[in-house]
Each structure stands twice: as C-alpha cells, then as structure tokens.
Amino acid sequence: MFFFFEGFLTFFNSCGNVMDAVATPLWSSPPCGSPMPVTVCSVNPLFQLGRLYYRTAAKAYNMTRYVVESLKLDEIVLATAMSYWHTFVSRLELRRFDEIVLSASCVFLACKVEHYKVRLNRVISLVFEVSGEGDEMEGWRRMLLEMELLLCHTLNFNFQMIHPMKRIIELVPEKHTGVLECAHRLFLLSFMTPLCAKVPADEVAEALVYLVADGSGQLEAYAGKFRYDSVERREGIINVIIDALAVMRKNTGLLKVDDMIVARRKRIREQESSRPSVAHSSGGAESLDATPSAFLCE
C-alpha cells in the first residue's frame, strides 16, 4: 500500500472517541480560514455563521450533488448526506478532517439509508478519480470506512432525517407553480447551511414558502396556513438563507428577494473592507486555527 495511507490513524481509542490526528489527502487544499471570523449577518436568534462556513459547505454540497447526479439518485440522498455533514461539523472540529473525505462518507452512508445499492468503489472513483483495484483504492476504502464509523458514532446511530419538501408541497397551491419551483430551489440550496441540523424541517419549509410568496407578491393566499408563528425565528431562518445566497452569489429571480441579497452582499463587502489584515505564519501560509465550527455559535 502506498506510504501515504500507512500513516492513517485509527479513529477510536475507545468507542466514540475522536483520534488525535488524521491524514489529509495530498490532493486536497488544507482547511484554511481566518483567525478573525466575519459574521455575515446581523444578530440572529438561531445562530451566526461566517463566510468560511458557507464556502466549505458549498464545496461539500457541490461534490455531493455531483455524485448524486452521476449515479442518477434521488435528491433525497443529497439532502440526507448534507444533513449528516452539518450535524458532524456542528459536533466535531472540521479542521481535524478533510471535508471531501467526510462528504464522500456522508453520501455513501446516505445511499444505504435511503435504500440505494451503491458500491463504495463507485463513490471513490467519482470523488477521487481512482479506478480499478489496488493499494490506492484499498487505501481510500479504509479511510472512508473509518470516517463512516466515526460519522455513525457522531450521529449516535440516528440516521433518520426529515426533510421539508413534503411540507412545501402541502403549503403551495397547485396553480402557484412559480412559488413551488423557487421554494424547491431554495430547499436544495438550504443544505449549504446548517438549518437542516438546527431547525425542525417543517419550520424551514414554512420560512422558505413565506420568503418566496412574499417576494412574488402572493403572500395573502397563504394566510392561516402557517403553523409556526414566531416572527423572530422565521426571520432568523430567512436571514440564514439570504446570507448563504449572498456569499454564494446566487439569485432567486424575485426582485424583492434579490434586492435583499444585493444589500446583504454589500454589507459583507463593507465588513471585509474594515476587517484587520489576516495574520500569516513564518512560512507565509494563512493561519489554520479557524474552522467552520468556530463560526457556528448558539
């Protein structure tokens, strides 16, 4: 086996304990960040995130979506895999792990949970561009299976995930196809945020429908349909979505919502322009002290 994999350490000293070190694939960029987290939103009653969290989550999301689409799987696999990813990151420091190795393990586990028979070698070939058998393939297999075991323990072997799409369909009348399509897009993009791991699925669904219905000027048609009536929490969910769209430079096609995104993007730029310069080590590399989990504050 390649020497690269010989240094891979066992994930557990005892059941559920995290190992002290993990080998990072040579091809992967290091999980870099800034020692000064920049919050991209105003005070949020749910949680606050930094730009780095969204960037890292987007990398995981794009890889997961690529695997799901390549294998022609249902989008529920994407939703479940990203729910696992955010739950893991909220409980353990991501800087100990490579986000792509974690993502590959999440999507492989999600395939099994959602009753898709997908071979691990197929996932490895898509993610790491390794084909056939041999030491390299076996090394990746061992690494992903070790990560999967740690993932299972981190999830407390609770693999069942509830996703908001069903509630979105219940809320939106058949004739409101534009609202449904936009809410569905936001549903998928919401998995770049930890909402799936922090907020009840139906509450996320209602906030997404509220945002789209309000943005399209059709909110009156939804009067009395919402079960969650906390304005503060709804605005908190919407703020997280707007933050993510601003950082990812995404638009909705709804003028009112897109104006919010543009304003948020401007605020982010202003925050960054007034931010102290990033500290550098003697080797000239950015500090690796900050991690996405450091930017997720209850």
Automatic annotation (TrEMBL):
Pfam families: Cyclin_N
InterPro entries on file: Cyclin-like_sf, Cyclin/Ssn8, Cyclin_N
Region ranges (Disordered): 272-298
GO MF term set: cyclin-dependent protein serine/threonine kinase regulator activity
Every Cyclin N-terminal domain range: 66-159
Gene3D superfamilies (UniProt xref): Cyclin-like
Superkingdom of source: Eukaryota
Any GO BP annotation: regulation of transcription by RNA polymerase II
Xref: PANTHER family: CYCLIN
Protein name: Cyclin 9
Organism of derivation: Trypanosoma rangeli SC58
